[in-house]
Structures are given as C-alpha cells and as structure tokens.
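Figure 3 (text version): structure tokens given as input.
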C-alpha cells in the first residue's frame, strides 16, 4: 500500500529591515524524500522562488531532512535561475503543545546567507475538509510568532541606536562638545549605563558653568 504524501504549508514572515514583504513556504514528505518550496515577495517588485529536494527520514519528534539539491529563481527586470548541490541537514520538528499532536512542524534552516524560521500546518488530505479549530489555532500561533519577531527587531534597533549614541557622545565629549553629548544621551537617559550617566552629568555641569 502506497503511503500518500504529507503536505505542510505556512507563511514566511515579513521583515521590513531587509525589504521582505512576506511569502509562503511548503514542505512535502513522501517515500523517503522531501520537497521544500519557498516564494518570497520583496520591495521593488523582486520575486524569489526556491525549491530544495533531498532525502527524508522520520524521527520521534519530526522529520530529518537531508538537503541535496537547490533550484532558485529570482525575477526583477529579468529572470535569473540557478541550480546547485547542497549538503545540509535540517530537522522539521513537530510543534510543541498547545499545538495539536503532529498538526504542525517548526523548521529552522538557511539558504546562502538568509535564515528562515517557519511554522507549517499539515494540510488536509485530498477531499478532506479543513478543520476550522485547527486553522484558528494556526492563525493565532503565526500572529504570536510575528509579534515576537517584531518585538525582537525593535529591541535590536533600540540597542543599535543606544550604541551609536554612546559612541558619538564619547567622541563629542573628547572635543568638549558638551551640548552634543547632552543631545545624544538625554533622550535615552533612563537606559544609560553608570559611565554614560556620569558623562551626561559632567556635560551638563560644563554647560551650566558656561551659561
């Protein structure tokens, strides 16, 4: 008896920091092989499509994917296609509770310099009706993952801004530009380190003496 293919599908989250508007990802496993397909939509009308194929093995917590071949296609003003071998091993793990058992997989992988982290929902078998409760759970889970990603990007952006302000304030203090030191550090005063607080206090003291 032939075992029917198992299909999973889900969204690729948008990422404004790199101009990614979002996309879709699907995974099909059958007969010891897998096919992973991605479609991504970027700013300026750039479209990327990728197909990865390889061997697949079942593990207690999911699937072992041994990627062997990668076909990519990029369309901007013209279409560029490429084929290349791969030697990567990934694991598609069944999503943990409260996800329904084996109803979804989490897959973390990288192609070239781009990393992906997707949640994929098992699709109904042919002629089977979708489960509304499962669809609602998946939509909520995707929204929660997107919110966590957005919060992390915001945290990283704040940290980068803080580091920039700290570096520039050090340079400004060295040339006695105390007004710039205050302009740089005052907006982030609540999160300053002890050394940065001291630098701001000294700059304000110098400014006060000069007034």
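Below: residues designed for each position.
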């Amino acid at each position: 008896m032939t075992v029917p293919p198992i299909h999973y599908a889900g969204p690729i989250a948008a990422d404004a920091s790199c101009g990614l508007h979002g996309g879709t990802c699907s995974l099909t496993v059958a007969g010891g092989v897998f096919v992973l397909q991605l479609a991504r939509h970027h700013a300026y009308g750039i479209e990327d499509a990728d197909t990865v194929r390889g061997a697949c093995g079942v593990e207690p917590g999911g699937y072992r994917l041994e990627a062997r071949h990668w076909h990519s296609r990029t369309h901007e003003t013209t279409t560029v296609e490429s084929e290349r071998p791969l030697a990567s091993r990934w694991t598609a793990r069944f999503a943990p509770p409260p996800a329904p058992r084996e109803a979804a997989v989490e897959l973390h992988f990288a192609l070239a310099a781009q990393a992906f982290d997707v949640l994929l929902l098992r699709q109904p078998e042919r002629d089977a009706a979708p489960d509304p409760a499962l669809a609602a759970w998946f939509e909520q889970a995707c929204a929660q993952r997107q919110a966590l990603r957005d919060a992390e990007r915001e945290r990283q952006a704040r940290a980068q801004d803080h580091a920039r302000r700290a570096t520039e304030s050090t340079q400004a203090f060295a040339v006695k530009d105390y007004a710039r030191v205050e302009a740089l550090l005052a907006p982030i005063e609540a999160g300053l380190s002890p050394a940065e607080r001291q630098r701001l206090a000294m700059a304000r003291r110098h400014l006060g003496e000069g007034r």
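The beta strands are 6-12, 20-30, 33-42, 47-59, 62-75, 79-94, 104-111, 114-122.
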